[in-house]
Amino acid sequence: MQLLRWIHLVGMVLFIGGGLSAAVVNRMAFEEGADGKSMDWVQWNLGRFSNGGAILLFVSGVVATVLEGYTLDAFQHQGWLLLMIALGIAATAFNGIASQKARELFEKPPSVPSEVSGIRYVIFQLRIGFLIATLGALSTGIWRFTI
């Protein structure tokens, strides 16, 4: 069980670290303007890296709940767990959509520089959504220990 907790922690670090790094690179791409194509490639790949962490996180979480003996009835009384799962799914969705938009921006950039800036701003909003959902999921995980 201890190994499973470490795998869960590694998945969390990869997920949050990859998403946060992609958000930072997105802000750097704004400074580069239309020449930030390499930054779009980097944030796309950091998003993919973060997705790998999400897979580790969700798989280890499911295995941990099964090994702990949680049943569907037990889930009804674990509001923190349901909230953490919902926020984790939301964070994964934000990250996936932002990564796809970064990929499209890298592979088929618009010809008008203002459109590039607009797409980067949308990616920025998605990355902020990722960070807020991730912070919420972490908070509910910590909240569990105070109940």
Question: What would you say this structure looks like, in words?
Answer:
- With 147 residues, this protein is mainly α.
- It has one domain.
- The chain is 87% helix and 0% strand.
- It is built from 5 helices and no strands.
Summarize the structure.
The protein is mostly helical and 147 residues long. The protein has helices at 2-32, 37-68, 72-76, 79-107, 113-143.
What's the helix count? 5
Shape descriptor reads elongated
Q: What characterizes the major β-sheet? A: none
Query: What would you call the structural class?
Result: mainly alpha
Alpha-carbon Rg, integer: 17 Å
| Share of residues in helices | over 70%
Low-confidence residue ranges: none
Please trace the helix and strand order, writing H or E for each element.
Answer: HHHHH
Tell me the count of domains: 1
Strand content: under 5%
Mean pLDDT across residues: 88
The count of β-strands is 0
First-last Cα distance: 22 Å
Summarize the topology:
Layout: H1 2-32, H2 37-68, H3 72-76, H4 79-107, H5 113-143
Helix pairs in contact: 1-2, 1-5, 2-4, 4-5
What are the main properties of this structure?
147 residues, mainly alpha, 5 helices
